[in-house]
Write a structure and sequence with these properties.
This protein is an alpha/beta fold and 299 residues long. Strand 3 and strand 4 form a beta hairpin.
Length: 299
């Protein structure tokens, strides 16, 4: 029985051309300016407020009393039902700043580390995890940009395999405790400034960058990139997205990362992905050239 070359393991000339074309495309993509995908965290990557999710753990650790725990639980409910507008966000910032005054920073980090997988892992959107994978595979960095505190956001970013994290930072006193003052507030226009600063320092081409958020308060960040996306948008952001013809994404499937893809927490580095792809393409093209030369089809 005679099989076509494509089925007998001997690539045809069209196949060879496709392989060489794929190799050239990989090289071209690798030579383009760097790009990144910027993700808001709460209700964009995870289904709840990252800070408020830890309220029960902070209560059990003795950092807050029962009344504060109930109040943060109510705030979480309001956040999930309708989100928080600018004024509500400002009141929440003032409340949380006052609440955390005197907290030992190391104790906070230990509580977050101990409860991270139980509290955060189950509420990560499957759709968001897929986007993280896709952007890494395309050679883009992944950056989490969140209004929540760095002590909470940085471990979550590591869990997700993010390359960088931008988050609110509180002032820490000589005693290792929060003073209640805010050193850096990652909110609204400040997020956009952080995106532009990272683009300058890391060499990102903002026109090739992506951004994802659920809130109209992140409009400055979305406007700063060439590919903005509204995710589970509040009414104000949905209105803006429709007016600007931005993609609107609906994330609905929280899933544990280990159940979805165990290796997600350690994504392949973009340079390694590109190198592997280039190497594989070059090896394949070389093998085909050698095989054809032996048959006398290439002089």
């Amino acid at each position: 029985m005679v099989y076509p070359r494509a089925l007998s393991g001997k690539p045809t000339r069209p196949t060879l051309r496709r392989m060489v074309g794929a190799y050239a495309q990989v090289v071209e993509n690798h030579s383009l300016p760097r790009a990144a995908a910027f993700f808001d965290l709460d209700k964009t990557v995870i289904a709840k407020s990252s800070t408020l999710t830890f309220s029960k753990s902070f209560y059990q650790g003795g950092l807050i009393n029962r009344r504060a725990a109930l109040r943060t639980a109510y705030a979480q409910f309001v956040f999930l039902v309708g989100g928080l507008d600018h004024d509500q966000m400002e009141r929440m910032r003032e409340y949380l700043s006052t609440l955390c005054r005197g907290w030992n920073v190391q104790q906070v980090r230990e509580i977050v580390a101990e409860t991270l997988h139980d509290l955060i892992d189950p509420i990560i959107y499957d759709e968001a995890a897929s986007l993280v994978e896709e952007h890494h595979a395309a050679g883009r960095d992944v950056v989490i940009v969140s209004t929540s505190g760095a002590e909470v956001v940085e471990p979550i970013g590591e869990l997700l395999g993010a390359d960088r994290v931008v988050a609110t930072r509180m002032v820490v006193g000589p005693d290792g405790c929060f003073t209640g003052e805010v050193e850096y507030y990652a909110y609204g226009p400040t997020k956009a400034e952080a995106v532009r600063e990272l683009a300058a320092s890391e060499g990102y081409d903002l026109a090739r960058c992506y951004a994802y958020s659920d809130s109209a308060t992140d409009l400055p960040m979305l406007q700063a990139v060439g590919h903005p996306h509204a995710v589970n948008p509040d009414r104000a952001l949905r209105r803006e997205a429709l007016a600007r013809d931005w993609p609107v994404l609906e994330f609905r499937r929280p899933v544990r990362l280990k159940q979805r893809l165990p290796a997600l927490s350690v994504p392949p580095r973009p340079a390694l992905v590109a190198a592997a792809a280039i190497g594989a393409a070059a090896a394949t093209a070389g093998f085909v050239w050698y095989s054809n030369r032996r048959r006398g089809t290439i002089s």
